[in-house]
Amino acid sequence: xxxxxxxxxxxxLNGKRILDDLNMDIWDGHVHAVVGPxxxxxxxxxxxxxxxxxxxxxxxxxRFDGRSVKHLSIDERARMGMTLAWQEPARFEGLTIRDFxxxxxxxxxxxxxxxxxxxxxxxxxxxxxxxxxxxSGGERKKIELASIMAMSPRIVLLDEPDSGIDVASLKKILAxxxxxxxxxxxxxxxxxxMTVLKEAEHAFLLCGGRIIDKGPVEEVAGYFKNExxxxxxxxxxxxxxxxx
Length: 244
What we know:
Layout: E1 2-13, E2 16-27, E3 31-35, H1 42-50, E4 59-64, E5 67-68, H2 74-80, E6 82-85, E7 92-96, H3 97-104, H4 110-119, E8 130-131, H5 137-151, E9 155-159, H6 167-182, E10 186-190, H7 194-197, E11 202-207, E12 210-216, H8 217-220
Parallel strand pairs: 3-10, 3-11, 6-9, 9-10
Antiparallel strand pairs: 1-2, 1-4, 4-5, 7-8, 11-12
């Protein structure tokens, strides 16, 4: 069953076509990955699906669980069970980590808040700290993921989930991706990392705003070996992309 259906999606920003006649089916309960060179349109795709400001004016349609979300606000999409983890997590001056996680949690009990935090490898001692500049980028990314774990969303888009994360923390995040799946969430990974890509079951290769390949991860993984699929675009992945 398709949870998200993207049909003939075209996004133009500042006079430049970023996404060009895109068609995608996201299967319910699966982990998908979207890969491609810098500038291919991966983050634009995530922002458009989520309905962020500046990404609401597009051609085509996005359907979530059979319903068009084209004219729905980000809050309305969130209430339907959609969420996005930013590549660069936001700061919320004055808001404690406990309150930040509890705000969107389905189960707002202290036990559930602590479990979500522990799942991403952060101790209970952080609960009373503020979500502010005193936290490292990696800590903020893990805390944002903890808030998503507590939400139990129907679908979550993770934009570069390994960005700014050390090796030990990455193991926790990869485990959380599979935990989200087991809890019933559909996951879309936007990534340059072979390690993260391997957590997916199905992948899309995006280049020049178009899907130029899709299928099992093992097939699309050739992109990371600089074996580009022939197409009419000049973009080619850098040889270092996808390396650890």
